[in-house]
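FW: tagging you since you asked about this chain on Friday. Here's the raw sequence from the shared folder, copied in full. Didn't touch anything.
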Amino acid sequence: MKQAIIILCVIAFFIGRIFAQDTVKTNPIIFGEGYLGGPIAGLSGLYAGASLNYQIKNSLLSLRASIIPDWDLRILSPFIPLPYFIDNGHADEYSLLYGLRNIKNGHSFSFSTGVSYNYRLVKTYDNDDRFLDQTQHNYIGLPFELNVKWFKKEKKRYLIYYVIPVGKPTGFGRSFGLKLSGNLSKYSYLAFGIVGGIGYHKHY
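HL: got it, structure written out here
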């Protein structure tokens, strides 16, 4: 019982230290984002995902989930040019990342890496595109990402559809930027895309 109380006190102490670092400011730095792009090396298909991010000083902690659906475009025949897609499977990734994020006025630069759980489904077909078999792979990877993002420099009223102002001036707002990300693993890839976020992107 005494050991449990000591452990709870230690946990409470560290939680208090974490939140105390942000008490001198008006808001924590916490934001969610979604991104869309395509692999430029390794896997093929569309690259999409979302993440939740929390920053203390210059340290950035992120939870990331992404998917790469692997599709091939086919043409029905030269005489009937109707396109259709072949589903070759998909690659899923669930990551915990730690990195550094530097903020200057209304933009930021960050780099993170960490560990990920990955799932890969691979489907195979014959020469006539008839389904033959599928295999599943579970593996650990080394995820990484580099972000450049822009957001508002100071508190402003939130704009619905970027036009209609509502409420009082707030630090809560949107961001937009570019993301280069990838994973070093059994099925490595490198992807590039656009990223949009919402939340508190700096101390206001």
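FW: The chain has one helix and ten strands.
HL: agreed, and Residues 29-200 form a domain with the Porin fold (CATH 2.40.160.20).
FW: great, closing this out.
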